[in-house]
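User: Hi! I'm working on a homework problem where we have to compare a predicted structure to a textbook description. Could you give me the structure for the chain below?
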Amino acid sequence: MAKVHALRRLSTLALRQRRQRLVAQLRLPPHLIRASVVERFATCGKPNCACAQGQKHGPFYYLTQCLAVGHIHKFLLKSPADLQWARTATAAFNQFYDGLEELSQVNTELLRRGEHPGA
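Assistant: Happy to help. Predicted structure tokens:
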């Protein structure tokens, strides 16, 4: 869910300046991934294993990406380097998306005030 930015109290000039800063900052990082890193613990099903008494195996880390309803890509991140790269890439996406969302809200507020954001 997007963060709601308090923009109505800002002056139109302040909104224009904020839009200019956001556009200058928003550069598409080439390493971003729209996904989640998920931590899982599992049981193996062997009756004499410690996991049968509650000590589950793991943690195992997965990269999970929902492409559409019923279409989810998920795979195991096998090394600490893969895990770190996935966390960095998902964080890059979230940071880019947050800036894009704020830009959208600024443009919406400018349009509500009768200004054409692209002008």
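For your comparison, note the following. The two ends are 29 Å apart (CA to CA). The chain has two helices and three strands. Good luck with the assignment!
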